[in-house]
Amino acid sequence: MEQRPLGTTGLKVSALGLGTSTWGATTDRDDAAEQLRAFVEVGGTLVDTADVYGGGSAEEIVGQLLGKVVPRDNIVLATKAVAVLDDPDRRQNASREHLLSTLDKSLTKLRTDYIDLWQLHAWDHAVPLEETLAATDTAVRAGKVRHVGVCNYTGWQTAKAATWKQLNGVAPLASCQLEYSLLERGIEREVVPAALDAGMAVLPWAPLGRGVLTGKYRGGVPADRENSRFFKWYVAPRIDDRSARIVEALAAAADELAVPLVAVALAWVRDRPGVAAPLVGARTVEQLRESLSPATLALELPAEIRRDLDAASAPNIGYPESGI
């Protein structure tokens, strides 16, 4: 698998990252081990987790597997802090106290002395940004963190954080992680330009449109999925007339290239400006292997097909980003 620079840092990551949001929830330890093996066998290095994934157990599973499935130093380990699970009145906490205590807990669960990429999972309006970013510098100076990134920040938030780090921080922000796919291109309005200007890499999550871009819903939604709470909350918002048109354009491209829809969808987002590594996650290793197949990893979209997909999925940019 191709290795790419993470923004302007000296760190390199595989062109696809392994997401672990299902680990400890719908993916148990044995299945997670199979996923990690399949990932590293094709040259994958970037493993992305979070302190809240799997109710807190995803980091524990990752820690149990590092050193057994793959040497720790062969992995670019990314995790996150800020999100809160146990406080109904506060979903984010980016205070210095919370961040540094959470980091120590993450290091213990992950069974490692350092995090390659520590990410702020969300913006916290209740805490001054200066306090939050100064806390990340403390972690870097202590040798517990090598690089810092942000997740789910808006354009102005990304620009503000990047500017503070450039002027006051130990090192610039390395990356921003956001939802990005043929179905969700909203970050192209302001976040991607801000990231490119600051030299930050983009790490797309849900690059397969929350599963919609696999084509599994072309024939309708199965009754057992339609009534599930997870489907209603996570997938259903991505199923509409627009997404149906995009999936059909994707299917036409896949037919022309004789590859799966997954390969085309991942190749499209993987090679967008600023993108370092889309994060692919799956409930089972069989699902993951489709994203890691030789056809997917080697695919480079012809310019004409890319233009067709761009047109089919074009977001409404509007003023002022589009100009006068």
TrEMBL record:
Transmembrane segment boundaries: none
Top-level division of the source organism's lineage: Bacteria
GO MF assignments: oxidoreductase activity
CC per GO annotation: cytosol
InterPro entries: AKR_Detox_Biosynth, NAD(P)_OxRdtase_dom_sf, NADP_OxRdtase_dom
Keyword Ribosomal protein belongs to the record: no
Name assigned to this protein: Aryl-alcohol dehydrogenase-like predicted oxidoreductase
Organism listed in the record: Saccharopolyspora spinosa
